[in-house]
Each structure stands twice: as structure tokens, then as C-alpha cells.
Design brief:
This protein is of the alpha/beta class and 547 residues long. It has three domains: 15-104 and 175-368 and 438-462, Glycosidases (TIM Barrel, Alpha-Beta Barrel); 109-160, Oligo-1,6-glucosidase, Domain 2 (Oligo-1,6-glucosidase, domain 2, Alpha-Beta Complex), CATH 3.90.400.10; 477-546, Sandwich (Immunoglobulin-like). The protein has 17 helices and 21 strands. The protein has helices at residues 30-35, 37-43, 78-90, 109-114, 175-190, 215-219, 221-225, 231-243, 259-265, 295-307, 327-330, 339-350, 381-392, 398-408, 445-449, 455-468, 470-474, and strands at residues 11-14, 47-50, 54-56, 65-71, 94-99, 128-129, 149-152, 157-160, 195-198, 249-253, 275-277, 316-318, 356-360, 477-479, 487-492, 496-501, 507-510, 519-523, 529-530, 534-537, 542-546. The strands form five sheets. An eight-stranded parallel β-sheet has the order 11-10-9-5-2-1-13-12, covered by helices on one side. A five-stranded antiparallel β-sheet has the order 14-15-16-21-18. It has a three-stranded antiparallel β-sheet with strand order 6-8-7, with no helix packed on it. A hairpin with a 7-residue loop joins strand 14 and strand 15 (487-492). Helix 12 (339-350) packs parallel to helix 16 (455-468). It is globular, with a radius of gyration of 23 Å. It starts with 10 loop residues before the first strand and ends with a strand. Bound molecules: 1-O-alpha-D-glucopyranosyl-D-fructose (TEU). 1-O-alpha-D-glucopyranosyl-D-fructose (TEU) binds next to loops.
Length: 547
């Protein structure tokens, strides 16, 4: 069986702003990241996905690019980028960069030109329209809240932004825009990057007449935005003109695309994307409630996601990233007595899927959500916009919105990486842009490196195990007990048995006929009792057996 390198890889996501600060200004940077590359090598990952390192307008932490061929001065220089690429290459780790081309920053020179007026040669790089009935051209909402249109006084029209006003959408129907994107991709490929994680890539095609969304579509506007008429044509063009023949990976962030639709996007015959990030799993709990889901529901999503690779394609799998709550707080048990055990069980889940696992920085030590006390403590543009939309407008009580943000806000993932128990978790000698979690005293890389029972040690062992057993990467997935309320039990390749206890109480697995857990390959928190026919897992314990 031949496979592509990215199918056999474990990917690690770095959010450079929060990873490691070398110059003491409180913001993470590339020299800081370079100083910590041995941590990634010791973990055993094959590739790093670096969240945007480009010069940014500063509205959405890099997801608003002002210069696609320059490193943001807060993060360093092009020489630092080259040193990063070399340092990774020395350790056999590939570098995947973020590609944010649905929109630019409003500080990008193209937009500065575009807004000069209707005659500007760059006018058509963006999506400008006249208003309707004294208001915006249509009823499209921004994903961050409010209208997706902002009035530009100077040039007398509205421009479209599916995210913040500082993130105007590019007009992909203009061939010059697509040509620019292709050139940007070639620029970074020529600097040795191994591929791209493509931000909200399914949003790039808009219906030319920009029709209003129906009341139903307004419930989840991302679904409408992700289904533009020329999406597949534009993705295929990227593939054929830029990526074909290079050994680079294209991972699409498929916001608005279901697991079922994802299968088509990653079908190799369609020549669009190699893998996608779907949202079915992370969106399982509803916005306001952490506990609003059941284990059978989660298992049904796992089975659907397993099919999302389709008959011929492949997929990625993640439990957290820079937009999501910490997995321990989202799906595990954040109580300090159970957090480490649940972090390990989630790790076993992540590393035993038939998909490329993506670990988000801090996940490998079981970092948890931050106890945000007030809206002032939150920095995220999405949280701020939600506050304006819901609280300042009087639509909802402040406490309710704060509670929701406390567990769902994207800032939970963006607090500094916890390196040590020292000041600011060892992230910076200065004042961090976002406070470090007070639990860094207990949860940090330094302490866990010395502890063979730590979450970090479990991650290292799991990654090594996955590397040694191809059946755990490519083998079929079969859920053995979809309805159990506390236990996840599945086979991989009909040869490996994975058992995960998602509760504090012990749980017994009685092996069905033909399934004999013969050899324990890995377990978290000690060895489960195994009588051959039955395995007893302790609270939040997990194990992988060879049949
Ligand atoms: O995210 C797409 C996106 O819409 C999510 O931020 C979503 O709103 C969030 O997950 C709600 O749960 C991408 C980037 O990952 C994100 O950081 C950017 O803010 C966004 O695009 C705009 O570039």
C-alpha cells in the first residue's frame, strides 16, 4: 500500500503569537519558536502548521494579511523564517503555512488602492456594491456578528466582509486576484514550505447576484457561504496550476461544509484538496453549554468523520485549534483531579483515528480553558463583536454572555503556552499580551518532561506507537458499541482494539465474540484489568490492544 507523506504524518499547530516570546515584548515570535524546536522533535511530530506569520493589520491576530510576502515585524524577519525552516528541516519536520486568501486586511495596499474609487484598477479586487433601500446591498451577516457590509464614505459604496470590517473579501471572480493567489503560493513553495492550510477556503466563490439569505439560511450562514457556484472550479485551478507535481499538501478549512460534503472535496479524482478540517465534532456542543452532548452522539460523529475521507480520499482529525475551547474543557473533565487522565484519553482518541491527527500547541500537556472574569480580559475580535451585538444592544444579560464566552471564547486556546511553573509560564520575560493560565504551576512542559506518567509522556508514546503500526493509521474503523453512554470501543484494521472511558467511574468492556484483547500496546494511567473476555478501565482510562 503506498501512501502520501501527509497521510502518515502527525501535524502540530503553532499559533506563533502565543507559543514562545524571545524578545520580551509579550508577543510570541519566530526566534522564540526556533528556541523550542527540540520540544517538537521530542514529541515526534512530522509537520508543523504555522498560523499566519505574515504582516497583519492586527484585527484578527494574523488572519488579516497586509503583506503576503513579508513576516510580521512582531514575529521577526524573513531571515528568522528561513532559520525556522532550516531548524525544522534539520529535525526532519516539514513546514505547512497558513494561506489566508478569502480576504485581506483593510491595510493591504490592494484595498488601499481599491477604495480610492470606482475607477481604481484595483476596484475589482474586492466586492463593492451600491446599497439597497437606504441600507446594505443584502442581508448577509458577518460571521463575527453585524452586517457583512461596511459603507465606505470616500468611494460611496459598500464592501463585503464575511468576517470583521478590517477583513474585506477578495473578489475571486476576477482572474487577476486568482493569479495573485497562485503567485503567493509559488513564492512560499519556493522557500521550501510543504503545503498550505487554507483559511475558510470554501467561502471564496460568491453567487454573482448576491441574493438575500432565507430565514433558515441565516441560522447557519456559513453553509450558504461555503457553497458558492465556482468553489470547485477555483480549487481545481489552484491544484492544477500551482500544486500539481509538487509534493505539497492542501488542507482546506471547510467551515460550513458537513462531513458528508467533505468526502467530495477530498476525492483525489476531483483534484481539489487533500484533506479538510470539518466542524462536526467541535460544534457538537451548542454555543452556550459545555455539557449539551452525549457520548452516543459523539460516536456517531466519529463514524461520520471516518467516512468523510470518502472511498478514495483522506481526512484530518482535530479536537482543538486556535478557534476552539481546550479539548479537556470541551470533551474531557477539567476538574484538576481528572484533567490529566481525561487529556490522555482524548490523546488516545486523537492518535487512533483513520485520519491525519493535528495536535494544537498545549494540547500535548493537557492545557485547559482560562477562568476569564470579565469581558475586559478577552481580546478576541469575535468575543468583542459578540459583546457589542448581544450585551451592549440589551439583547441578553451580561452574565449569560460572559458565561458562554468563558467556555467558548477563542481566547481559551490563545493563552500563552505553558513551559514552566515560573512567571508567565515561562512564555515571556515581559508582560504577555494575554495572561497565562494560573494552572501553569501544575500544567507545564518542564514538569511533565520529568514525569513518565504525564500527559506529555503519553503523547510521545502514542505518536511512536502510531508510527510503528500502519494499521492504526490506515486500517478500517469499526465502532463496537455505538450506544454505550460512558465507553468508546472501536476496532482499527480488525486487529487493534481501542477502549476509552469517558467517565469518572470504572467501566467494564465485555469483548464480543471474535475480539480477544491479547496484547496491551499502550494504556493511560496504569494497566487495566484484563481477564481475556473482559477489560475493566478505571475512571478516564484508555487502552489500545492488539487482538
Ligand atoms: O476560521 C473560520 C471561522 O469562521 C471560525 O473562526 C469560527 O468563527 C469559529 O471557529 C467559531 O467557533 C478561520 C480562522 O481559523 C479564524 O481564526 C479566523 O478568525 C477566520 O477564519 C477569519 O480568517
Amino acid at each position: 500500500m503506498t501512501s502520501r507523506w501527509w497521510q502518515d504524518a502527525v501535524v502540530y499547530q503553532v499559533y506563533p503569537r502565543s507559543f514562545m516570546d524571545a524578545d520580551g515584548d509579550g508577543v510570541g515570535d519566530l526566534p522564540g519558536l526556533i528556541s523550542r524546536l527540540d520540544h517538537l522533535a521530542d514529541l515526534g511530530v512530522d509537520a508543523v502548521w504555522l498560523s499566519p506569520h505574515y504582516r497583519s493589520g492586527g484585527v484578527d491576530n494574523g488572519y488579516d494579511v497586509a503583506h503576503y510576502r513579508a513576516v510580521d515585524p512582531q514575529f521577526g524577519t524573513m531571515a528568522d523564517f528561513e532559520a525556522l525552516a532550516a531548524g525544522l528541516a534539520d529535525r526532519g519536520i516539514r513546514l505547512i503555512v497558513d494561506l489566508v486568501v478569502n480576504h485581506t486586511s483593510d491595510q493591504h495596499p490592494w484595498f488601499a488602492e481599491s477604495r480610492k474609487g470606482r475607477e481604481s484598477p484595483f476596484r475589482d479586487y474586492y466586492i463593492w456594491r451600491d446599497g439597497k433601500d437606504g441600507g446594505p446591498p443584502n442581508n448577509w451577516p458577518s460571521i463575527f456578528g453585524g452586517s457583512a457590509w461596511t459603507w465606505d464614505e470616500g468611494s460611496g459604496q459598500y464592501y463585503l466582509h464575511l468576517f470583521a470590517p478590517g477583513q474585506p473579501d477578495l473578489n475571486w471572480d476576477n482572474p487577476a486576484v486568482r493569479g495573485e493567489v497562485h503567485e503567493i503560493m509559488r513564492f512560499w513553495l519556493d522557500r521550501g514550505v510543504a503545503g498550505f492550510r487554507m483559511d475558510v477556503i470554501a467561502f471564496v466563490s460568491k453567487p454573482p447576484d448576491l441574493p438575500d439569505l432565507s430565514v433558515e439560511q441565516l441560522q447557519t450562514p456559513q453553509r450558504a457561504y461555503a457553497n458558492g457556484p465556482r468553489r470547485d472550479e477555483y480549487l481545481r485551478e489552484l491544484h492544477d496550476l500551482v500544486l500539481a507535481g509538487r509534493d505539497a499538501v492542501a488542507i482546506g478549512e471547510a467551515f460550513g461544509v458537513s462531513a458528508e460534503e467533505a468526502a467530495a472535496l477530498v476525492d483525489p479524482e476531483r483534484r481539489e484538496l487533500d484533506m479538510v478540517f470539518t466542524f462536526d465534532l467541535v460544534d457538537l456542543p451548542r454555543e452556550d453549554r459545555a455539557d449539551d452532548w452525549t457520548l452516543p452522539q459523539l460516536k456517531s460523529v466519529l463514524s461520520r468523520l471516518d467516512r468523510a475521507g470518502g472511498a478514495r480520499g483522506w481526512n484530518s482529525f482535530y479536537l482543538e485549534n486556535h478557534d476552539q475551547p481546550r479539548a479537556v474543557s470541551h470533551f474531557g473533565d477539567p476538574d484538576p483531579r481528572w484533567a490529566p487522565a481525561s487529556a490522555k484519553t482524548l490523546a488516545t482518541l486523537l492518535m487512533s483515528q483513520r485520519a491525519t491527527p493535528v495536535v494544537y500547541q498545549g494540547q500535548e500537556i493537557g492545557m485547559t480553558n482560562y477562568p476569564f472574569g470579565s469581558i475586559e480580559a478577552l481580546q478576541d475580535v469575535a468575543a468583542r463583536a459578540r459583546w457589542v451585538r448581544d450585551v451592549e444592544s440589551g439583547r441578553r444579560p451580561a452574565e449569560a454572555v460572559l458565561n458562554s464566552l468563558r467556555w467558548r471564547s477563542r481566547d481559551n486556546a490563545r493563552t500563552p503556552m505553558q513551559w514552566t511553573s515560573g512567571p508567565n509560564a515561562g512564555f515571556t520575560t515581559g508582560r504577555p499580551w494575554l495572561a497565562a493560565n494560573p494552572n501553569a504551576a501544575a500544567i507545564n512542559v518542564e514538569a511533565q518532561s520529568r514525569d513518565p506518567n504525564s500527559v506529555l509522556a503519553h503523547y510521545r508514546r502514542l505518536i511512536a506507537l502510531r508510527r510503528a503500526h500502519r494499521g492504526l493509521v490506515h486500517g478500517a474503523y469499526r465502532d463496537l458499541d455505538p450506544n454505550h453512554e460512558r465507553l468508546i470501543a472501536y476496532l482499527r484494521d480488525e486487529r487493534y482494539l481501542v477502549l476509552l472511558n469517558f467517565s469518572r467511574e470504572p467501566v467494564d468492556f465485555s469483548a464480543p465474540r471474535g475480539v480477544t484483547p491479547a496484547q496491551l500496546l499502550i494504556a493511560s494511567d496504569g494497566e487495566p484489568e484484563n481477564t481475556g473476555g473482559a477489560v475493566r478501565l478505571q475512571g478516564w482510562q484508555s487502552a489500545v490492544y492488539r487482538l
